[in-house]
Amino acid sequence: MYSQRVLESHPAGCAGDNLLSHCSGIESMGRMQMELHTGIELAVALIKQDTLPALLDTATRQLENAFGLSKCWALELDLSGRTLHCGQLGDASEFDCGDFSHPFAHVLQTGKPRELTRAASYRLDHTGFQTLFEHSDRPRSLWLEPLTGADGRTLGVLALCGDHDDWQSIIGQPLYTGLKQLLVHQWISQLQTRDQVWQRRMLKRSLDHLHDAESVRQRCQQLSHTLVGNSEAMTNLRAQVVRAASSQLSVLIQGETGCGKDVVARGIHDLSERAQGPMVVVNCAAIPDTLLESELFGHTKGAFSGADQAKEGLLAQANGGTLFLDEIGDMPMALQSKLLRVLESRQFRPLGAREEQFSDFRLVAATHQPLQQGIDDGLFRRDLFYRLSQFPLRVIPLRERTDDLEVLSRHFIRLYVEREGSGPLGISSHALKRLAGYDFPGNVRELRNIIELACLQTAANGDIQPEALRLDDLLMDAGQAASAVADVATIPGIPVAEEIRDLKAAAQAFEAAIIRERLQQYRGNRAQAAESLGLPKRTLAHKCLKYQVTDV
Ligand SMILES: Nc1ncnc2c1ncn2[C@@H]1O[C@H](COP(=O)(O)OP(=O)(O)OP(=O)(O)O)[C@@H](O)[C@H]1O
């Protein structure tokens, strides 16, 4: 205890009055020096603390030792000013300042110190206070004092616990007031440091946020050169593509045919950290079921009849890059299970091989088919669907974002001029109006075809006019159509013109009948049938699925 330590250090045995007064002079000087030394030691220890909890801990231990207290607590008022916290009390460390069942609320409200006797303490029905009382060895008395900074800011409450009758003999001592002042000063400086740290952290967070937002904005801007469109839907889609590109999640792109799923997949690859790696595109609808597995997994020499060379699969080729599985809805069920296994481990075994191989690819898949329907019909694995659609993206049809028509049209005119060396300057507002009234079943691909055909029919340096837009009849004019109808009139399944009541259904029946007939003609060879009809293989495959034309 500090006072005892001071007394114990007095020089012993002074005799006679003079001597006595001399002795007492020396004694008081010694005591002053001792007090000063002790005070400086304590002050240095307080100043050294660099966190608020360490400061409060050191200060309360100093007060306990210096004044022989059974316990000293420093309760901190939180930022809201509603709760006092006592770090050393564990679970019972919070005191609601509006709850007058403990005495700290009263001290804070009045801003004045008060004494609390043991008997009064026993009567208080507050769990937190009783825990504090218990941890203080149930003292005879508590001295509760609010601590306030020079600016009037309330910091908290200091609670001194001991068996003292007269608290004034302690709180009146210069050492006590000095320590308390220093504690308050250091407390405020810790709060200021904490505020500054917090402000710096907030500033850094805002700057990081701004930086992220700026980098997303720049990437969206970059993407807008290939994934063109001003509509809100397209702006949102670009932001999603940028997000998807920065992750490693599997992406499933859904949307009608021709709406830009390939463009989206390419954007994801180009903006990802795999951009320098390969992008391997597999059209599941264009590769016959029997070949798809060996194309994907590869095979060893002699793995099956006709495999006279070992072949690296597309999965292996996609190592370090992106594997784009287009028309995933057309993947046969047996292969779906194998793909699921590959997606879980990135391990696969080429046909005929003994060893497994590993390929680090990122998967992007696309489909124009409603996969949910495929799942319900038992044609698509639900677990694969979830595995593919970790980051789902939907490209909405062009007819639902007519705001994009102008910018897309100008984009395709520019591409035409770049390719052909000359062409129209732009497109007239009347022509744009005409486009807006059309519903583009073939989406952006159809718009591109319409614009390119219109470019051909527009004088260089002129603007595309409505007459140059061949909507609906892009593939054949009336004369050609009539002769085509005459040619196919003998094909079974073609509706008789006079009996047609539903033009769309009739047109579909017409298409289906021609495809069926052409497939028969080429003995089921889809590539030849597609070529003879001027269609890409995949388009023919889509139409076969759509019209349920089975191979002959
Ligand atoms: N937003 C766009 N900006 C620029 N070009 C686009 C856009 N969307 C589509 N295109 C163009 O339209 C054509 C068809 O696009 P794409 O092949 O990406 O469609 P898709 O949805 O993948 O079609 P499918 O279902 O038949 O595979 C392409 O020439 C493509 O470049």
UniProtKB/TrEMBL annotation:
Q: Which InterPro entries match?
A: AAA+_ATPase (IPR003593), AAA_lid_NorR (IPR058031), GAF (IPR003018), GAF-like_dom_sf (IPR029016), Homeodomain-like_sf (IPR009057), HTH_Fis (IPR002197), P-loop_NTPase (IPR027417), Sigma_54_int (IPR002078)
| Highest taxon above the source species | Bacteria
Please list every transmembrane segment annotated in the UniProt record, as residue ranges.
none
Q: Name one Pfam family in it.
A: HTH_8
Q: Which residues form the Sigma-54 factor interaction domain?
A: 227-456
Please indicate if the UniProt record lists tRNA processing as a keyword.
no
**Could you give a GO molecular-function term held by this entry?**
sequence-specific DNA binding
Write the record's keywords in alphabetical order, separated by commas: ATP-binding, DNA-binding, Nucleotide-binding, Transcription, Transcription regulation
List, in alphabetical order, the GO biological process terms annotated in this UniProt record.
Answer: regulation of DNA-templated transcription
Q: What is this protein called?
A: Regulatory protein LuxO
Q: Organism source for this protein?
A: Marinobacter litoralis
